[in-house]
Amino acid sequence: MVYISNRPIGEPLTIQQVSPGLHVLSNAKLDSPWPKAKRLGKRFKQVLNKYGKNEVLVKEMVEKLMKDKVKADKGKLPGICALDWEFNHSSIFVEMDTPRWGYMQGLCGTRSSAALMIGVGGEVSFCDKYLDEGV
C-alpha cells in the first residue's frame, strides 16, 4: 500500500510505502503524533486486544471509536494555529459552532469517518460513514 499527500500546503508531494501495522490518519500526515491520532491508535489497539484472534468488524470499529468527543489537553496540542481553534478540533469526532465575520457560520466538524482493514491473507474491509445530517 502507498500513502500520497499534498499536505501541508507549500511542501513537496509525499509518496511513501506503508509498512504493515496500525496507522492513523487525521488532518496531518500519516502517523503524525497529534493527540487525537494517538488517542485513536491507542483505543484501536485496545479493541483489537479485546477481540484477540476473532474478526473485528470494520463497521463496528468506526461506530465505536470514531465518535469520541474528548478533547486533548491544551498543553499537548501541536501549536500550528490558534490555541482555541486547535483545542476545539482536538477530539476524534469534531463538532462545534464557528463564528465568521461577527455571525455564526454554523456547525463545523467531522463529515465522515472511514476505516480500512487489510487482513494477513490480503482480505480488505472498508467502511465509510458519511454524516449527512447536522455536521
From TrEMBL:
Q: Could you tell me which InterPro entries the record lists for this protein?
A: TANGO2
Pfam families in the record: TANGO2
Q: What is the protein named?
A: Uncharacterized protein
Query: Species lineage, top-down?
Result: Eukaryota, Viridiplantae, Streptophyta, Embryophyta, Tracheophyta
